[in-house]
Design goal:
Blueprint: H1 5-13, E1 23-25, E2 33-34, E3 41-49, H2 61-77, E4 82-92, H3 98-114, E5 118-126, E6 131-139, E7 155-159, H4 164-173, H5 180-187, H6 193-202, E8 207-211, H7 215-226, E9 229-233, H8 241-244, H9 249-256, E10 262-267, H10 272-282, E11 286-293, E12 297-301
Parallel strand pairs: 4-5, 9-12
Antiparallel strand pairs: 1-2, 3-6, 4-6, 7-10, 7-11, 8-10, 9-11
Helix pairs in contact: 2-3, 2-6, 4-5, 6-10
The chain binds magnesium ion.
């Protein structure tokens, strides 16, 4: 990066961003100008930081760029939105190769493009660690659905499977070589944009969240925001096949590991039949894993009714490590 410099790098990436009718002024000015026909917006921001979220050899620069967009798209999906515009901030060590940063940028643009979003601006700053921060705007759906709204008796549903990405991280950190399925899952999250939109627009759900920091922790956020508790049946949780082959600790990892980017939603009992009819429109499987209860906190029980205990329910950046 020292060779090309900040402005040289920016000049090299700007011509690669496509033109769109809803982007009146794109990158290269003090602000971007975007057009929208009188609608509400969802706005979210998230970072990937070297040494905190990834190590360089875990994924290629292009994969890193893709992932940094996809995890933001997952937050938009969790509220039923459509990704539309994003701003990118790079923190870059001076020794980082500019050709690699071009690949990171190309990864962001490719993932954004696939989900219908445009990169409309950004910022570049020197940093001690490589980091990518993306602010993403999404079109809000016609009704709002948040983490608050779950009621006792509502059934808890989860899309896809969980555990594989956390397994890859766990194995890398212990010097192992994770299997292809686990690595793929870590590198390329699948934000459930289509499912999120269909679920919110259907009006069948009472709350939703994306599972980014671990099932137990994220369901805990729903419980706290809604003032309810949750009862989860371990046997019903769709744990990724790659984790199922491993001993019990892999199950624990699946429940608290994070990086799944699946959707968790709650459905009032009287909507269950209609939810079945909606399944084909979701574009992914959805499984019932438990029920919202009166009371507080998330309770996970095994087939014998025994409660599982967790030291911590998921990833917390500032929790002290033992
Ligand atoms: Mg989220």
């Amino acid at each position: 990066m020292q060779e090309v410099g900040e402005f040289g790098f920016i000049d090299s990436i700007l011509p690669k961003l496509g033109k769109r009718r809803d982007v009146l002024v794109g990158p290269g000015h003090d602000c971007a100008v975007v057009r929208s026909p009188g609608r509400a917006w969802l706005v979210t921001v998230d970072s990937l930081v070297e040494g905190v979220h990834f190590k360089r050899h875990w994924l290629s620069p292009r994969q890193l760029g893709r992932k940094s967009f996809l995890i933001n798209a997952s937050d938009i999906a969790a509220m039923g939105g459509q990704p539309r515009f994003c701003l990118v901030n790079f923190g870059v060590p001076p020794t980082y190769r500019s050709a690699d940063l071009v690949r990171v940028q190309a990864g962001i643009v490719s993932a954004a493009d696939e989900l219908g979003a445009a990169v409309v601006g950004g910022n570049l700053s020197q940093a001690t660690q490589l980091s990518i921060t993306i602010t993403l705007l999404g079109e809000a759906p016609s009704r709002l659905c948040t983490r608050a709204g779950a009621q006792p008796g509502d059934q808890i549903f989860l899309t896809g499977t969980i555990g594989a990405a956390a397994l890859a991280v766990h194995q890398w950190l212990r010097g192992g070589t994770p299997s292809g399925a686990a690595v793929r899952r870590f590198r390329e999250p699948e934000p459930r944009v289509r499912a999120g939109k269909a679920l919110v627009e259907s009006r069948l759900i009472s709350s939703m969240i994306d599972v980014s920091d671990g099932l137990v922790q994220d369901l805990g956020h729903v419980c706290k925001a809604s003032g309810v508790g949750a009862h989860v049946e371990l046997e019903r949780i769709p744990i990724a096949p790659v984790c199922r082959k491993l001993p019990n600790s892999a199950t624990r990892l699946a429940l608290s590991g994070g990086e799944d980017y699946e959707l968790l939603c709650t459905v009032p009992a009287h909507n269950l039949t209609r939810l079945k009819h909606l399944q084909a429109a979701l574009g992914c499987p959805i499984h019932r894993i438990g029920e919202i209860t009166h009371g507080r906190g998330v309770k996970v029980v095994d087939a014998t009714g025994k409660r599982l205990r967790f030291d911590h329910g998921g990833f917390d950046h500032f929790a002290s490590r033992r």
